[in-house]
C-alpha cells in the first residue's frame, strides 16, 4: 500500500502524463475541479450510507445534508455514476459540466465557483475519462485515511506542483507551504479573526487550520476572511477551503479599490501580496484614509499593502506579511519616510530575511514583516498577556543561510528550520522567554540603533553577517532574472500590440 507522499507523487505523475500538450495553467482547473467533485461526492456518499441505514431518515432529503454541513450531490453528479457509467463515453465532458451545474444549483454557496468547461473540443475526452478513472480508483479509500483528509492533501499537493509547472504565473495563486507554515507558527492564530486581503488559493487559511489541529484547537475558534482579485484563483480558493471544511468569508474583488471587508478589524493577518506591483491604481487613492504613515508611490504597492493591513488590525492584532527585500531599504517615492514613521510609532515587531529559491515565480529575494499594534502590551489583553513590552526594540532574524534544496531550482524550510526561527521570535517576544542574540542569526536591536542605520530594516545590517548591503543573489542570477523579466515584458508588449491592431481592424481602422 502506498504511503500518502508516494500516493501524491503517483497521482501527479499519472495526471501529468494525461495532460498531453495542454498548458499547465489550463489543465490545473481540469484536475482540481475533478478532485473537488470527488471530494464532495465521497462526503455525500458517507452520509448517504449512514442515512440509508436509518429507517427514520430519507437519504435523498437535501435538508439532511444541510443539517450536517455536507454538500448535496444529485444522482447524475455522483462520482460513482460518472466513473462507472459515463467515463468511457465521448460525452463525458458534457456529463461533468452538467454535474457541476447541478451541484451549484443544489448548493447556492458554490454558485459560480466550479469549473464548467470540460466539454470544450480542445479537451481530449479519452484522456478525460482516464483522469476520472485515475482519481476515482487510486488510494482514496486507503486504510487509516479519511477521504476528506486525503483529498485535501492531494488538492494542496497539486496546487504546489501546478505552481511549479507554471513558473512565474504559478506564484500568483500559491505561496510555498514552508513559508506559510513559518508565518502561522510565528503568529500562533489559536482563536479570533484571520484575514488575508490577497488570499490566492487559500493556503494561509489551510495552514492555520492545521496549526489549530496540531495544538488541539477547534476550527470553530477562528473566523476566516479573505479577498482575491483574480476570478479563477478565487474559485480555486473556495474549493480548497470547502475541501477542508473551513467556513470562510472569501470575496472577489480588488482590495484597494473595492474592499469587501471595509470595516473589518482582525486579530491576525497572514498575507503574501504580489511583489513590487506597479499597476495597482495608486494614483486614484492619493487621499485614502489608509495612508496613516504617508502616501505610497503610485509605481509600487508594497507600502500600500503594509498600511492597508495595519488598518485592518484590531488594537492588539498582529500580522505576518511577505514582501520583496527592497521594501526594507527603499527610499524612493516617500517609502523611506513611511518606513521611518512605522518604526517610530512602534508597529514593526520583527524582520526575517529569507533565502533565495523559496518561490516558484520569482528569483527576487524576499523577507517577512511582522507587525503588532500593541507592542507595549499595555493594558495587557487576554491574548497578548504573555507578551512583554518590546516597544523599544525590533528583532532581526537572518535566515538566508537556512533551508534545504527540494529540487534543482527550489528550496524549502524544514520543520527544524521553522522551529529555529520561531523559537527565536517567541523567546524574544514572550515574558517568560530566555532570548539571547546569536551572531550571524538574530539580534534584538534598539530603536536608536535602527535610527542610527537610517531606518534600514535589513537583518544582515544588525546580526553581524555583513558590512556591505547584500541582497543575496549572485551576479549571474541577477542578470538572468533581469533578462527573463525583459523577455516576458517584450512578449507581453507584442501580444498587446497584436490585440490592439486586431481591435482596430474590427472597426475598420488600418494601421
Q: Which structural class matches the secondary elements?
A: alpha/beta
Shape assignment: globular
**Percentage of residues assigned to helices:** 40-55%
Strand arrangement, major sheet: 3-2-1-4-5-7-6-8-11
> What is the CATH topology classification name of the largest domain?
Rossmann fold
Integer-rounded radius of gyration: 25 Å
Say which CATH homologous superfamily of the largest domain is assigned.
Vaccinia Virus protein VP39
Any idea what the CATH architecture of the largest domain is?
3-Layer(aba) Sandwich
Regarding CATH, which class of the largest domain? Alpha Beta
Determine the N-to-C terminus distance. Answer: 64 Å
Count of beta strands: 11
Number of domains: 3
Strand content range? 5-15%
Order of helices and strands: HHHHHHHHEHEHEEHEHEEEEEHEHHH
Characteristic terms for this protein:
511 residues, alpha/beta, Rossmann fold, 9-stranded mixed beta sheet, two-stranded antiparallel sheet, 16 helices
Give a written overview of the molecule.
- The structure is a single chain.
- With 511 residues, the chain is of the alpha/beta class.
- The chain has 3 domains: 4-165, N6 adenine-specific DNA methyltransferase, N-terminal domain (Ferritin), CATH 1.20.1260.30; 167-463, Rossmann fold (3-Layer(aba) Sandwich); 474-511.
- The chain is 43% helix and 12% strand.
- The protein has 16 helices and 11 strands.
- The protein has helices at residues 4-18, 24-52, 62-67, 79-86, 92-106, 125-137, 147-166, 177-187, 203-214, 231-244, 302-312, 335-345, 415-429, 447-452, 460-463, 475-506, and strands spanning 192-196, 222-228, 248-252, 266-271, 313-324, 348-353, 366-372, 393-398, 404-405, 411-412, 442-446.
- A 9-stranded mixed sheet has the order 3-2-1-4-5-7-6-8-11.
- Helix 2 (24-52) packs parallel to helix 10 and helix 4 crosses helix 6 (125-137).
- The longest helix is centred in the C-terminal third of the chain and has 32 residues, at 475-506.
- Residues 467-473 have low confidence and may be disordered.
Amino acid at each position: 500500500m502506498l504511503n500518502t507522499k508516494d500516493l501524491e507523487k503517483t497521482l501527479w505523475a499519472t495526471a501529468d502524463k494525461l495532460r498531453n500538450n495542454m498548458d499547465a495553467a489550463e489543465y490545473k482547473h481540469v484536475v482540481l475541479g475533478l478532485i473537488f467533485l470527488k471530494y464532495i461526492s465521497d462526503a455525500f456518499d458517507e452520509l448517504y450510507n449512514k442515512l440509508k441505514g436509518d429507517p427514520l431518515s430519507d437519504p435523498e432529503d437535501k435538508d439532511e445534508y444541510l443539517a450536517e454541513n455536507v454538500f448535496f450531490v444529485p444522482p447524475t453528479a455522483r462520482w460513482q455514476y460518472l466513473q462507472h457509467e459515463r467515463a468511457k463515453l465521448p460525452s463525458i465532458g458534457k456529463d461533468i459540466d452538467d454535474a457541476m451545474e447541478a451541484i451549484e444549483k443544489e448548493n447556492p454557496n458554490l454558485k459560480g465557483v466550479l469549473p464548467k468547461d470540460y466539454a470544450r473540443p480542445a479537451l481530449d475526452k479519452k484522456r478525460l475519462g482516464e483522469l476520472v478513472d485515475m482519481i476515482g480508483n487510486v488510494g482514496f479509500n486507503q486504510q487509516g485515511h479519511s477521504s476528506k483528509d486525503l483529498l485535501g492533501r492531494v488538492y494542496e499537493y497539486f496546487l504546489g506542483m501546478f505552481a511549479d509547472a507554471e513558473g512565474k504565473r504559478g506564484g500568483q495563486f500559491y505561496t510555498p507551504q514552508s513559508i506559510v507554515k513559518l508565518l502561522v507558527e510565528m503568529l500562533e492564530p489559536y482563536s479570533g479573526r484571520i484575514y488575508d486581503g490577497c488570499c490566492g488559493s487559500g493556503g494561509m487559511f489551510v495552514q492555520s487550520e492545521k496549526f489549530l489541529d496540531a495544538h488541539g484547537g477547534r476550527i470553530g475558534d477562528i473566523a476566516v476572511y479573505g479577498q482575491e482579485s483574480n476570478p479563477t484563483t478565487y474559485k480555486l480558493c473556495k474549493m480548497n477551503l470547502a475541501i477542508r471544511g473551513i467556513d470562510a468569508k472569501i470575496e472577489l474583488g480588488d482590495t484597494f479599490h473595492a474592499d469587501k471587508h471595509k470595516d473589518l478589524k482582525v486579530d491576525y493577518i497572514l498575507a503574501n501580496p504580489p511583489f513590487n506591483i506597479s499597476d495597482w491604481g495608486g494614483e486614484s487613492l492619493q487621499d485614502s484614509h489608509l495612508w496613516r504613515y504617508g502616501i505610497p508611490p503610485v509605481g509600487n504597492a508594497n507600502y500600500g499593502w503594509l498600511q492597508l493591513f495595519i488598518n485592518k488590525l484590531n488594537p492588539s492584532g498582529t500580522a505576518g506579511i511577505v514582501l520583496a527585500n527592497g521594501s526594507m531599504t527603499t527610499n524612493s517615492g516617500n517609502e523611506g519616510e513611511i518606513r521611518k514613521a512605522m518604526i517610530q510609532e512602534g508597529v514593526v515587531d520583527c524582520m526575517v530575511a529569507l533565502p533565495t529559491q523559496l518561490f516558484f515565480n520569482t528569483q527576487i529575494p524576499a523577507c517577512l514583516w511582522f507587525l503588532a499594534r500593541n507592542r507595549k502590551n499595555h493594558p495587557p489583553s487576554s491574548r497578548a498577556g504573555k507578551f512583554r513590552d518590546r516597544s523599544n526594540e525590533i528583532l532581526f532574524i537572518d535566515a538566508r543561510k537556512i533551508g534545504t534544496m527540494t529540487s534543482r531550482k527550489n528550496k524549502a524550510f524544514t520543520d527544524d528550520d521553522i522551529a529555529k526561527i520561531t523559537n527565536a521570535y517567541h523567546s524574544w517576544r514572550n515574558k517568560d522567554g530566555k532570548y539571547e542574540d546569536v551572531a550571524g542569526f538574530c539580534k534584538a536591536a534598539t530603536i536608536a540603533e535602527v535610527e542610527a542605520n537610517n531606518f534600514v530594516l535589513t537583518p544582515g545590517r544588525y546580526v553581524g553577517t555583513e558590512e556591505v548591503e547584500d541582497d543575496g543573489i549572485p551576479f549571474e542570477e541577477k542578470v538572468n532574472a533581469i533578462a527573463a523579466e525583459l523577455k516576458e515584458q517584450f512578449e507581453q508588449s507584442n501580444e498587446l500590440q497584436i490585440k490592439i491592431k486586431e481591435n482596430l481592424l474590427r472597426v475598420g481602422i488600418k494601421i
